[in-house]
Amino acid sequence: MTVGVGILGGGTVGGALAHRLLTERQAIADKAGLSLDLRYLAVRELGKPRPYAFPAGVLTDRPEDVVNDPSVNLVVELMGGMEPAGDLVLQALKSGKPVVTANKELVAARGKELIEAAEASGVSLLFEAAVGGAIPIIRPLSESLAGERISEVLGIVNGTTNYILTQMCDNGAPYSSALAKAQDLGYAEADPTADVSGGDAASKAAILASLSFGTWVGSEDVYREGIEDLLAIDISYAADLGYLPKLLAVASDTGEGVSVRVHTTLIPSDHPLATVRGSQNAVYVKGPDVDELLFAGPGAGGDPTATAVLGDIITSSRELLAGAQVPPRVRFGPGRLRAFEEVETSWYLRLEVMDKPGVLAQIAATIGGNAVSIESMVQLGRDDEATLLFITHPSPEADHRKAIAALGELDVVRQVAAAIRVLPPT
Amino acid sequence: MTVGVGILGGGTVGGALAHRLLTERQAIADKAGLSLDLRYLAVRELGKPRPYAFPAGVLTDRPEDVVNDPSVNLVVELMGGMEPAGDLVLQALKSGKPVVTANKELVAARGKELIEAAEASGVSLLFEAAVGGAIPIIRPLSESLAGERISEVLGIVNGTTNYILTQMCDNGAPYSSALAKAQDLGYAEADPTADVSGGDAASKAAILASLSFGTWVGSEDVYREGIEDLLAIDISYAADLGYLPKLLAVASDTGEGVSVRVHTTLIPSDHPLATVRGSQNAVYVKGPDVDELLFAGPGAGGDPTATAVLGDIITSSRELLAGAQVPPRVRFGPGRLRAFEEVETSWYLRLEVMDKPGVLAQIAATIGGNAVSIESMVQLGRDDEATLLFITHPSPEADHRKAIAALGELDVVRQVAAAIRVLPPT
Fold it and tell me: Under an 8 A CB cutoff, do A324 and B326 touch?
């Protein structure tokens, strides 16, 4: 009843996991009914100081040896990035070893190939920790909700940007100082690009969409924009209109195809996701039978993520010990992707305009002339300083882009100062 | 790749499920990669009018024939209640057929025996729909969080009482009229006892606790009180103090044993569960590594519950088709239960007192003399009409009961008009 575990990657999650496998071995055995034996932890630099001590022989800098060692029954990939992680995972699966990974980038890019390799070998590839840290969402989507025709998934799946946006909302801080604070506190990395540009969220959105709709969506299929251009003044105006900003992952299947996108979105302040603050994550699932489901919790961090990985290790070990061919958990049917330009979006627009007679008529004609209709309008200030705020009704993304470009060409419009997508109230 | 499904019980959930198996057969096949063939729907009265039409031969009034028919590979039990449901489930499992059930009463009472019977036959017993309707919570607790040392689970797991309490909070309605409205709208049954007395929530609490702590907790081990005695005036006072009432299922393991209870609880108005309104359900999970997780959604209803059942059917069918011995998903270790009297609770107390010098000193001495300490006190009114509101610090339930009894004996106390447990702010 012992499973030999080999961990690839000795960073925050790998270190925390290895430590728990050693210190909680008896507790896991009592609760889960199986014995997990940490055989290896493959790290980049053997000599680097570490917060935990490991028994002799556990640390190695040769990940390929971990995958090949016959005493390793199950491989845990926590290196991150595409290579060598991808080939090591594939090699493990092909040799009949189940794999647990937290690598969203890898799963979003090569998930279909890896899942098929796992199925061909009759073993599991589990990746609960790839989205939402400790929040159980992969298993609920792919198993519990396998019978639901999910129509929409909305996710706050990047803690760094949610922390920054919460700071901007609470304190009126500009983006740059909220980012600096996030970096000081360790919520953002020195190079924050992957988080603030939406890249990390896009990988997670691709995974959520693939599992929700049973149609493979790769990270390259996800439209993405980051939060870098958001101004404090628009957060303030949006609050007055009853909205607040989130970097939202949106995956929808309207029956005309699957669309997946990540962008700054103004959500109604009474939406369930509006309560998700700071570095918290949450996923909101909509379907005709389940109506609305919400899953929320810590989206990152060594200990929460290690818990998600450990849950997958226990599931996979139970399967190993049952000696079973593992049934497939997910399956990708035909389905088709829908171009973002066709998808209906709503927008908040802030125009800096000259205030003279006929200006509003000219602007309204330009918006309407591009098949976009206005839900509400507010005018602030007068004369040379006039600001117009618009919220538009849903219409195709392409029409909105044309309308925004046309507004920028008008002589009476000094500047289209902000254009942010809006989640319409449900 | 076809699985023959036999459903026992043609009520709201059974009818909705049978209808979906017939009408969504192709969609399920596309998404899940398997074909589910509805063989039987066992109902109580064959002649009763039904909202859906079924093919000839599907309806039967002989549930034992469904279990025994060799064309039925998988049994779905939606009859509810203890018998004959329990023996039919046991018979199916013993004959090597996996079972999916939504029957919380049965699982809470005989779950250990049934899970062991399933394990002995190498098949699954799945019951995602038994708690929280469409909210995936059973699988997350027993699989995703198998590696977490969960310390506390708080659940709003009865939609009827949550609807009634939300009405009382929003409109200041008394219990009786909020109950009548819930009955009018179909949220409460003509005999609401099982809901309002906490019995339904107690079964669900027992299941949540068993899975969270890996220690078997039967429904008879759950302390329970209902919401029937709650007065609108105390909801109003509690709101002023920053609290609102929920019928809360509380399962905790403080290291000194597992305690499970269901009772009206005043929770801080900024607690994540405070946003769960109307007939919604939610489960909140706390642990040292995951910190806080929240799962929320519709807790009952034919369509949401049918989705949860269908997810279990698909999982179980995939296992059947893989031809595997199914590994155990849960395991009950030793662990011990803790008597509720030893558990630390906090209370809201409303005393109607005579307002004369020395009264407060006498009351404070009585509370302190029973090893309970006061967190805050508010005096309302004067003279003959004086009301004192206390919130106490956590101390053992037994001490609180003694203090409350002793307060009732004091001459200066006209009445201990309300005593409601409080969830301390975290």
Answer: yes
Interval A88-102: pLDDT, tens: 999 999 999 999 999
The average confidence (pLDDT) of chain B is: 94
Which residue from A139, A293, A313 is facing B139, i.e. has the nearest CB? Answer: A139
For residues A287-300, give the mean pLDDT. Answer: 94
- Domains of chain A: residue spans and CATH: 2-133+301-321 (3.40.50.720), 139-297 (3.30.360.10), 340-422 (3.30.70.260)
- Whole-complex ipTM: 0.93
Distance CA B145, CA A297 (A): 13
Cβ neighbours of residue A106 closer than 8 Å, sequence gap 6 or more: A77, A81, A82, A85, A86, A89, A114
A211 in reach of chain B (CB within 8 A): no
- In which band, very low, low, confident or very high, does the pLDDT at B80 lie, cut at 50, 70 and 90? very high
Of B145, B310, B326, the CB nearest to A322: B326
- pLDDT of A324: 67
Residues facing B126 on adjacent strands: B100
